Each structure stands twice: as structure tokens, then as C-alpha cells.
User: Which sequence fits this backbone?
């Protein structure tokens, strides 16, 4: 049996939870799904629509807000009690925080950020990116079962989960949880003060990454954006360095955009960036490294030095005149 | 406040990586190395906390003798002393093994605060810090963007997905995994580099009984999901052709 640990907040299921459920279904083994919190009826009902053996609900007042200590404590009991062969989770921020502690408390191995499961030499292997997506590795867990694996968000299609003919059993799991084991006090989530730029509405975006090398070169990117009638966006390191404001960041911790045109300059294409822009209609990458992962998602690419290509692009756009308006095209 | 910062040495971002002959790691014998990016931010945060609250910053790194380079760099930036866990096997080890080695090296020092990066640029497990917290028996929080020292412990700002944040309080001792961008990095000064030469570096061996938690069966280049049309030619030719394609074929400008 594979136990999937689903994630919810305030009674709303995290959509990424469907992905480890699908990964588990695809192995052909029976699947159970566990979810922790308070007032879980509706989340459990939603999960029970999938073809799974059972949905296990773990309710306790001390689980009203997630804490790493609370989750490690209860899931350690649930895993020990249900004795699964494998435990799957979505590789969310929450999983990153408690799953490594959970696995090591039980003396088990955890393989994070997996994108596929396969059989290899009669062993179960997990495929995961390495070196920022430049390579992938087939990795086999060692030591006693259950082995834990977390799945990269977006690696599986949530809507491909097999639905059951009838709703699965929903079972409340009896747990004891000493409030004293929880050392963290969580305050309610909040967003930073209103964002000044809304990149989600932009039709065209010129995004710049660390290939730009220095703050003084940002002007070059702004010139190209102006010639294209585009907004300027950036990868995280550019905003971390303070070269562009944080609200221009695209990716898992920034904005998610889907413009008609996304032009990526000197961006390698780490997964945390890709999730924020891969829904764009046309993606163009300019990068001096032909093997940069950004080319995995690009429709058009130029392998070259952006300091040579960008001025040439600006010249080509301006030579044809009125390049910024795009007028006359649907 | 006695603070430990764990820094990992990784291959420089710009290094052209190739899979090695055994097809389980990269050819890194002649590579150049640097400090894992979020670890540099963790170090900076530790230095700032020390400046505000006093105490000591101890940098810890595990790996082959070459990791002495990132230790020197951290000492030059202002760390007070270092612990280096020397082991060739730890260069490619899983996070469980590394965390066990680090825990053994720092446990007796009873740090008030342990900082790590949120994940490594090479293996990217996003686990070592959290496992270390469990092995040390201390509280932890991950992906931290601000640290406040409060009565009896810490109040920290935790990054959530999609632009959300959350404040979390906990008693010390504690371990935090630091996200890039939490502060602005300082660079080593000439004076710092000179001073670093006199600072203490304690070299220790990892416990003998470390066992792996996983095995890399094969490392390879991923298959392309999408056919990218590469536009060739000189920069001027390629730029002209790209403008034509975007205008006439993709119709996006
Ligand atoms: C929890 C978490 C959340 C994150 N959230 C985000 C996020 O929201 N957004 C985000 O972007 N990242 C995010 N990251 C960081 C992400 O993992 C990458 O580190 C980051 O996206 C890399 O940025 P980059 O591509 O600009 O830099 P690099 O990876 O350093 O890439 C630079 C690229 O520029 C190319 N280049 C260099 N010089 C030139 C030149 N002269 N001409 C052309 N090309 C050149 C290089 O070949 C390289 O491909 C997050 C990471 C974590 C762990
Ligand atoms: N060999 C190492 N030596 C010191 N610190 C390490 C080592 N490996 C990992 N770390 C720390 O653990 C963090 C997370 O690494 P990882 O679990 O590999 O993603 C890094 O950012 C470092 O702070």
C-alpha cells in the first residue's frame, strides 16, 4: 500500500496533492490518502472521489494551523500504524519543512522533488532533477521500507487522477497529540503590501536573469522591452540583488504569468522559474549555453551572447519602425 | 548568541558540467567551486545577528579537503572560526549522511542557533538542515526571509508559495533554513582575508558508521519535452530572423 499525505489549509485542498495520488495510482499498488487538520469533512470528501482504498482523516484542535512539530508527531504515528510500503507527498513548501524530519524520526529515507517513478533492475527508482535541472538522476532508496518520496509540483497532471466508481471510505484515525510537543507558534499568512506591477496582465514580457551580469546592464533590457512594448520581469537572483524590485519576479515565489510573448534573456530555466512562465503562449530564450534547461520549454531560441543579440534585436525592431505597437495584428 | 552556519561547496554555476564515466556524478576534478548561494545569505544573516546581539559565528562545512576554500571565504567575510568535516565520501553523499556528519561535529558545542541554506545548487535535496534539526533535537523553520531575536527565542518570517508569508515563533535553540535574498551580501575585504589566516579551523572526521540512504543509479541529460526552433547565424542575422518569426509566424509583436 502507498500512503499519500495530502495537504490542505483552512479546508481547501492544495491542488498539488493530486499529483502524488496519481504517481501512486500509476504504480498499480493500492493507495490510501491521509490528511491532517480540523473540519476535514469537505476535503476528505473531495479526496474520496479518487480511486483509492481509503481516506484517513487526522483531526485534532492542535492541528488547526500546520506546525512542523505537530505534523511530524501525528504522521509518525499514522505511518507506524498503517505500515505502508511507500509514502508519497507533494513537494510543497510545507512538505519541505516537515517531511525530512518525519522520515528521519522513523529512520527512513526520503527522496525529494521526484518527477517520475520507474522500475530499474528490479528496483523501484525515483527520477529527480540534479544540478538545477541540467541533469536528472535515477535514484533508488536504501534501508528499510517504507521509503518516502515527494513529487515536484507540475510533474504529474492532477486531472489525470483515476476516479473511483464509488466514493472511497473515509476513516477518522485516532491519534494522541500532546500539545507540549509543538514548539512553533504560527501567525496567519499574509501578503506583502500591494504590488506595484501586475505582470499577469502583460501581453509581452522581457525577463532577465543572472546572465545580465551587472545592474548597469539592466538598461539594455529596458530598451528592448520598450522596443517590444513589453514589461520587464526577472528571475529571483536579479530581485535578490536589488537590481529590480521584487514585484517583477516571476516564478514559484513570484508572479505566475502567461503573456503572448515571454522572452527570457540569460535565464537558465530552474524549475522554480519555469512554473511561473511555462504557460506563456510563445516562449523565446536567448542563452549562451545550448544546454540550459530554459530551452526545454522555449518555442524559439538563440544560442548566443545576449550582449550581442539584444542590441541587434533592438536595431531590427526599430529599423522596421513602430515595433512597439504591434498594431495591425490580431 | 552562539551561531553555527553550514555552508556547502558546489561547482561554480558557470562551469560546463559533463556526466562522468561511471554515469553517477559529474566530472568535477578540474572544476572551480563556490559557496552554495543560499548559504552565503545564511552566513550574512549570522554575521548581522552577531553584530546586533553579540556572540560568535562558527562556519561548518563537510566534504573533501577542497572545501577549505569556502571556509576561508566565510572566515574572510567575518566568521570567527570553523569546523571542517573531512571526508571524500561526503562530496556526493545524500542529505541524511551529511546531516549525521554535521550533527556529530557540532552537537557538543550547544549552539543557540544553527543556520543552513534552504537547498543546495547541486543535489537540491532541501533536506540537510531539517534532518540536522531532528538529529540535534531542536526546533526549526524553513525558507526564512527575516529573523528577529525575541525573549526566549526567535520570531522568523517564513516564505510560503505564491507571494505569501507567515511569522513563526519558537524557543531557542533552533535551526533555520535561509532563503536567498533575505539580506544584501557583503564581500570580503582585504583586511578580512588577512585576518582569516589566523582564525581557528578545527578538522574532524565523520563518524565511521555513516550509511547511505539512497543510491544514484544513473545521472543523465533529460529528454527534451518540446522542440525548440533554434535560430542560427550571426547575432544580427539571428536577431533579424527572430523579429520576422515573431511578427509573421507567431504574430506576437
Ligand atoms: C524555494 C525556492 C523558490 C524559488 N523561487 C524562484 C522564483 O520565484 N523565481 C525564480 O526565477 N527563481 C526562483 N528560485 C531560484 C531558482 O532555483 C534559480 O536559482 C534561479 O531561477 C536562477 O536564476 P537565473 O536563471 O537568472 O540564474 P542562473 O541559473 O545563474 O542562469 C544564468 C543563465 O544565464 C546564461 N548566461 C550567462 N551569460 C550570458 C550571456 N552573456 N548571454 C546569454 N546568456 C548568458 C547562463 O548560460 C545561464 O543559463 C527559487 C528557488 C527556491 C529553492
Ligand atoms: N556538505 C555540506 N557541508 C555543510 N553544509 C551542507 C552540506 N550539504 C548541505 N549543507 C547545508 O544544507 C543545506 C541544504 O542542502 P541540501 O539538503 O543538499 O539541499 C545547504 O544549503 C547547506 O547549508
Assistant:
Amino acid at each position: 500500500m502507498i500512503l499519500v499525505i495530502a495537504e490542505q489549509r483552512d479546508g481547501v485542498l492544495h491542488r498539488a496533492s493530486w499529483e502524488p495520488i496519481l504517481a501512486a495510482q500509476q504504480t498499480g499498488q493500492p493507495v490510501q490518502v491521509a490528511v491532517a487538520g480540523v473540519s476535514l469533512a469537505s476535503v476528505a470528501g473531495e479526496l474520496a472521489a479518487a480511486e483509492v482504498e481509503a481516506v484517513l482523516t487526522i483531526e485534532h484542535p492542535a492541528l488547526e494551523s500546520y506546525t512542523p512539530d505537530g505534523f511530524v508527531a501525528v504522521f509518525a504515528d499514522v505511518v507506524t500504524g498503517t505500515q505502508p510500503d511507500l509514502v508519497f507527498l507533494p513537494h510543497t513548501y510545507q512538505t519541505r519543512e516537515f517531511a525530512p524530519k518525519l522520515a528521519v524520526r522513523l529512520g527512513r529515507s526520503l527522496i525529494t522533488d521526484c518527477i517520475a517513478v520507474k522500475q530499474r533492475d528490479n528496483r523501484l527508482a525515483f527520477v529527480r532533477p540534479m544540478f538545477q535541472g541540467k541533469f536528472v538522476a535515477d535514484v533508488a532508496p536504501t534501508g528499510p521500507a517504507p521509503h518516502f518520496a515527494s513529487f515536484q509540483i507540475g510533474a504529474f497532471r492532477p486531472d489525470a487522477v483515476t476516479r473511483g466508481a464509488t466514493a472511497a471510505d473515509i476513516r477518522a484515525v485516532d491519534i494522541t497529540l500532546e500539545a507540549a510537543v509543538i514548539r512553533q507558534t504560527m501567525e496567519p499568512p499574509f501578503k506583502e503590501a500591494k504590488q506595484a506591477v501586475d505582470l499577469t496582465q502583460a501581453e509581452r514580457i522581457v525577463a532577465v536573469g543572472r546572465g545580465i551580469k551587472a545592474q548597469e546592464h539592466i538598461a539594455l533590457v529596458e530598451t528592448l522591452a520598450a522596443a517590444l512594448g513589453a514589461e520587464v520581469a526577472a528571475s529571483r537572483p536579479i530581485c535578490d540583488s536589488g537590481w529590480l524590485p521584487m514585484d517583477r519576479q516571476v516564478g514559484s515565489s513570484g508572479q505566475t504569468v502567461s503573456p503572448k510573448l515571454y522572452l527570457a534573456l540569460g535565464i537558465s530555466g530552474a524549475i522554480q522559474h519555469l512554473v511561473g512562465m511555462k504557460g506563456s503562449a510563445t516562449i523565446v530564450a536567448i542563452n549562451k549555453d545550448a544546454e540550459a534547461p530554459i530551452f526545454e520549454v522555449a518555442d524559439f531560441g538563440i544560442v548566443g551572447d545576449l550582449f550581442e543579440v539584444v542590441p541587434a534585436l533592438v536595431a531590427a525592431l526599430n529599423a522596421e519602425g513602430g515595433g512597439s505597437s504591434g498594431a495591425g495584428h490580431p | 548568541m552562539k551561531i553555527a552556519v553550514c555552508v556547502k561547496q558546489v561547482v561554480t554555476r558557470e562551469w560546463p558540467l559533463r556526466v562522468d564515466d561511471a554515469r553517477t556524478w559529474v566530472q568535477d576534478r578540474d572544476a572551480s567551486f563556490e559557496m552554495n548561494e543560499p548559504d552565503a545569505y545564511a552566513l550574512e544573516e549570522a554575521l548581522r545577528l552577531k553584530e546586533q546581539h553579540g556572540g560568535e559565528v562558527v562556519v561548518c562545512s563537510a566534504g573533501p579537503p577542497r572545501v577549505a576554500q569556502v571556509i576561508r571565504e566565510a572566515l574572510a567575510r567575518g566568521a570567527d572560526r570553523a569546523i571542517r568535516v573531512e571526508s571524500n565520501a561526503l562530496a556526493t553523499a545524500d542529505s541524511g549522511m551529511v546531516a549525521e556528519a554535521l550533527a556529530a561535529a557540532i552537537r557538543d558545542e550547544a549552539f543557540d542557533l544553527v543556520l543552513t541554506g534552504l537547498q543546495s545548487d547541486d543535489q537540491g535535496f532541501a533536506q540537510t538542515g531539517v534532518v540536522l534539526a531532528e538529529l540535534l533535537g531542536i526546533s526549526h523553520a524553513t525558507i526564512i526571509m527575516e529573523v528577529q531575536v525575541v525573549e526566549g527565542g526567535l520570531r522568523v518570517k517564513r516564505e510560503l508559495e505564491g507571494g505569501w508569508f507567515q511569522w513563526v515563533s519558537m524557543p531557542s535553540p533552533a535551526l533555520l533554513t535561509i532563503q536567498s535574498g533575505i539580506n544584501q551580501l557583503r564581500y570580503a575585504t582585504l583586511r578580512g582575508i588577512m585576518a582569516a589566516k589566523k582564525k581557528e579551523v578545527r578538522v574532524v572526521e565523520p563518524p565511521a558508521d555513516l550509511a547511505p540512504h539512497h543510491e544514484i543509479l544513473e545521472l543523465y541529460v533529460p529528454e527534451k519535452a518540446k522542440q525548440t526552433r533554434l535560430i542560427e547565424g550571426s547575432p544580427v542575422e539571428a536577431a533579424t530572423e527572430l523579429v520576422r518569426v515573431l511578427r509573421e509566424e507567431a504574430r506576437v509583436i
Observations:
- Chain A touches chain B through 94 residues (CB under 8 Å).
- Residues 3 and 239 of chain A are 39 Å apart (CA to CA).
- Residues A 209-211, 235-237, 249-254, 266-268, 270, 272-273, 276, 286-289, 292, 305-307; B 13, 118-119, 143 surround flavin-adenine dinucleotide (ligand 1) (CB under 6 Å).
